[in-house]
Design a protein that fits this description.
CATH class: Alpha Beta
Number of helices: 5
CATH superfamily: Dihydrofolate Reductase, subunit A
Distance between the termini: 25 Å
Helix content: 10-25%
Radius of gyration: 16 Å
Low-confidence stretches: none
Shape: globular
GO molecular function, one term: 5-amino-6-(5-phosphoribosylamino)uracil reductase activity
Strand content: 25-35%
Protein name: Bifunctional deaminase-reductase domain protein
Number of strands: 10
Order of helices and strands: EEHHEHEEHEHEEEE
CATH architecture: 3-Layer(aba) Sandwich
Structural class: alpha/beta
Largest sheet: 8 strands, mixed
CATH topology: Dihydrofolate Reductase, subunit A
Mean pLDDT: 95
Number of domains: 1
Pfam family, one: RibD_C
Strand order of the largest sheet: 5-4-3-6-1-7-10-9
Length: 182
């Protein structure tokens, strides 16, 4: 079965973006050696991306070519009027049902790009297998949280961490399956 991996950066106070969706704060932290924090290796390990429509619109606002054109990309939206593009298929069905089916199909791992609402739905459904969270040395004070209201309490198993001279710290966790009661 394919793994669903949430690979994302957060501020130290747990925000993945400003309230308006901007992630400019990630670029404001000096990175003189142009470290990619394992991004290229991670990107090579996945063949599918999942994101909410707000996250998709933010990516489009960066300009340039769509960055995941070589992947199968699904964007979840309640807007049924959206039309598929060359690189994106819009999904209007229940995200948890869709992802359960997707994980059982052949392929590489699946990247949950975000945002907070989709992260919460898939966390609550127990569908995220691994979390690769890169903590940025900045506090935003407000914005879009990693998980939205209603996120269920979930236990994680620590896998590893790595710190970088830029002040970023990357942690990897896996979901601990809930105990089975017999």
């Amino acid at each position: 079965m394919r793994k669903l991996i949430l690979y994302i950066a957060t501020s130290l106070d747990g925000y993945i973006a400003r309230a308006d969706g901007r992630v400019d704060w990630l670029e404001s932290i000096p990175n003189p050696d142009q470290l990619d924090y394992g991004y290229a290796d991670f990107l090579a390990s996945v063949d599918t991306t999942l994101m909410g429509n707000s996250t998709y619109q933010t990516i489009l606002s960066f300009g340039g070519d769509f960055p995941y054109a070589d992947k199968l990309n699904f964007v979840f939206s309640r807007q049924t009027s959206l039309t598929d593009t060359d690189y994106v298929r819009f999904v209007h069905e229940d995200p948890a049902t869709f992802v359960k089916s997707l994980k059982n199909q052949p392929g590489k791992d699946i990247w949950l790009v975000g945002g907070g609402q989709l992260n919460t739905i898939l966390l609550n459904a127990g569908l995220i297998d691994q979390f690769i969270i890169t903590l940025a040395p900045v506090s935003l004070g407000a914005g879009i949280p990693l998980f939205g209201p209603g996120a269920v309490e979930t236990q994680f198993k620590f896998i590893k961490s790595e710190s970088f001279e830029t002040g970023f710290v990357q942690v990897v966790y896996e979901t601990v399956p809930p105990p089975t009661h017999s």
